[in-house]
Amino acid sequence: MPSLLPASILGRTSPVRALLEAELRAAGFDVLPNEDPGTLGDPSLVVVLDLEGDAPRTALDACRTTRARLDAAALAVATDRDDDAHLRTLVDAGADELFVLPHDAPRLGPRLAAIRRRVETTRRILDDKRDIERRHEYLYEHAPIILHSIDAEGRLVSVSDGWLDALGYERAEVLGRRSVDFMTEASRELALARIPELFQRGVGQGSRYEFVRKDGSLLEVVMTALVERDAAGKSLRTFAVSTDLREVREVERALARANDELHTLLAAFPDNIFRVAEDGTVLEAHFGRRQRRRSVESLPALVGKNLTEILQPLRAPEVLDAIKKVRGTTDVVSLEYETLGTDGAPMFREVRVAALPRGEALILSRDVTELRHSEALLRENETRLRALLDNAPVVLWAVDREGIITFAEGKGLAHLGFRPGELIGTSAFNLPTVPGSSLPQVREPLAGRAYMGEVAIGRVWFEHVSWPLRDASGEVTGALGVSTDITERRRVELALRESERLAQAVFENAPVGIQIFGPDGTSVQMNEAHRNQLGLPSKTYGVGVFNALTDPLHVSTGMDQCFARAYAGEVVEIHGQDVNLDIYGNTWSSSRARLVFDTILFPIRDGAETRAVVAFCRDVTERRHAEARLLLADRLTSLGTMAAGVAHEINNPLSFVLANLEFVAEALRAAPPDADTYEAATQALDEALEGAKRMRAIVRDMGTFSRADGDAAERGPIDVHAVLDKSIRMTHHALRHRTRVTRAFGDVPQVIGNEARLGQVFVNLLANAAQAMPDRPESENEIRLVTRSIDGRVLVEVVDNGVGIPPDRLTRIFDPFFTTKPVGEGMGLGLSVCHSIVTSFGGELLVESTPGTGSIFRVILRPAELTPRSRRGLRPSGRGDRPRVLFVDDEPYVCTAVRRILGRDMDLVCACGSEEALGLVRAGERFDVVLCDLMMPGTSGVALYASLLELDPALECRVGFLTGGACTDEVRSFVGDVGDRLLFKPFEAESFRALVSALASGSMPPRRVG
């Protein structure tokens, strides 16, 4: 066979040397004579001649010098001295083989052939290792992750591109410097403190440090360090992998790859060597420099034992049989078996058996556990990678520096119409489906820059990640990349953007106001409809500032609590929300300062967390105004219905009032009356007075039910029985001669409501009940009014035994404009308005009816929470002196009547109008009390009061007022502020005296304002 391996022989010419040269050439070695072991080249076998007394230096020194310079080469000693002690000394000095000549001459050829085969194997292994080291060094320096290695002195010997990129340095700026010089002071002290523990344990994991970049900024990393040692345990260098905390996953994967490569490099080849006798007794055992110590016993302790004592029972016969097979041959028998290590874990050993002289055998035992595990893991990883490439829409590819595809695998190829392997050798710039000008994923890494981006190839969109491949000198040799098909993802993203655009268009163009509030209640967006509702000056006005949970408008109206419920996950509906923009000082410049909204608050939830609240606001201001007008129209219709009855009720007492007054007037004009005439006149006056009181009650009841401003702002505790009594009196004419009314009033508390509006409900229900009565005798018809408490609320039932309501109409009885009356006899708003009024008070209006039997209307109201309120009694003060009183009224007869009746109790001055009253005060007249009518031509009573206070501020609590009914908004507002200082016409003399007494005492409170 060709001679592949050179060899050198030390020693002068001798028969032994001649024999060795011949056998070496026969075994395939080239023989290169070299007398100086210090000038060795790269031999595969070095033979030292040990000829006593003839060698220029001792064989022992030559072995030691040569052994230190050899790597894969074998070292043999050829000697003519058969001295066991001397031979052991040579083995200890590093000799791998001993040739005792001429004794071993017959087996010299086979042994040299075995050495050649072993050396060839060892050299291949070392070449593979060097190649792996070169690849590792290349990958190490050009890896995008943060890697560095330091020597035993802590100085940087290698750093990765990722380390340089992360810190912003050039490689020449950092190599040779201490790694801790690039840390903050705190991290430097921490790292120096951990170094002893690192060298003791050999590994440090999970340590956090802060590096200082070249620009002065900080880089926080988690570092893992690994110490590489030689066979003697001396530290050679330390590898460190740092993970940028912002990219933990990527660095962890890179760290795992680096650790795998590092472990591969550091794994020693198994080379335990045993020399055994023919019967299997261990004669000599050498522990190799690169052998990991996992044996059950130390190697020296094995000497003298038989293989049957060392190996497992099933393995010992196999090894002994191999010794027999190789005896006298040059064959090598290989075996592999499984055993247990010191930790009890299974391990695999490869055993090679070759023959030695004298029937002995050489056994090389190497630990291949890691190799087998690596092979299994490699197969598993290959399976996983293949599964990934076969199933995921990716393409793993590589190109050389010219852009020629050297590798392309993955299911994504099918999306481009290619089969695996079809693109190998093709230029990436000339593919038919790829325009050459649009390949940044190839051009960028070939230019030395990593690339990440999305590029379409044909009609298929890919997300590309690619980076340059470099050789040991740093030159770009190609590019490696992963391309993922994202066509479907882009389609979804485009659809999502279109959906978002459509949603934004719907949001901006919705006919209702929409406002979105963030998780903390701050307004983040509102649509154009809501901006127009509020009259906002700009698109961004209030956004990011207005807070639904703390805004004063929301707090004052209780809307903050509604929003709190929405943020708790509840859908909240608010009907009739009053919005007074005046609270902002006209900042929003809305054309309408007071608005009414129907609002729905809808929470946007993410699991148990509310991410936003959407408010849908419908402006119902105009609708409320229209409803108020319809309500007033219906109320006036009801009053019109009662007008004839009220006229009848007033005309009856008016007839006998006029007749009695005429009788008294005639009696007084005649001669002085006798006793009988005087008694008749007195009786006539009493009857006239009673008739007048009846007319006054009727007029006041009419006033109660004719008010148009009974809104929610005037709600308060009211006596439901009093309202029912007034309603009966108001409908008396419609009820009499048609039905009888019975009462069954229980003990019920006052209710929340408004007297006028609640009276309208009962008047409507009584009038409807009367109209539902059939044409039959009055005694057979009955309307029964029942009150009682139920479940903490007040129940009022209006029960009639009329014709009832058909079932098909019962479900629509409360609908607006639905009526069962003939055309022209009603608008169909009565029961609808009643239902709205009752529900506005937080109550319910229900109906139950049976045709031919009658109907029951149930009004359920909330009870009022009464708080004790002291009322100032209007009683005469009992003062002995007569108060001076100015009485102002534009009706002369009223002034005359007051002077006639009350002139004896007080010093009364009457003025017919505001101007005459002001003239008296300006002229210096002083009064204890002023009483004035509110409705007067010219200067009203309200204006007169203001003028009097300007002339004499002391009169503020001494002015009282009279009215026959408030006809203007100004007067109505004023009446609500004066409280107990008001008398309604017609009034009784005693009430007049009590008010004057209270005013004169100065005990009346001032007018309420606001």
From TrEMBL:
Q: Which residues form the PAC domain?
A: 205-257, 444-498
**Superkingdom of this entry's organism?**
Bacteria
Q: Which residues carry this modification: 4-aspartylphosphate?
A: D933
Q: What is its EC number?
A: 2.7.13.3
Report the protein name in the record: histidine kinase
Q: Which PROSITE patterns match?
A: HIS_KIN, PAC, PAS, RESPONSE_REGULATORY
Catalytic activity, per the record? ATP + protein L-histidine = ADP + protein N-phospho-L-histidine
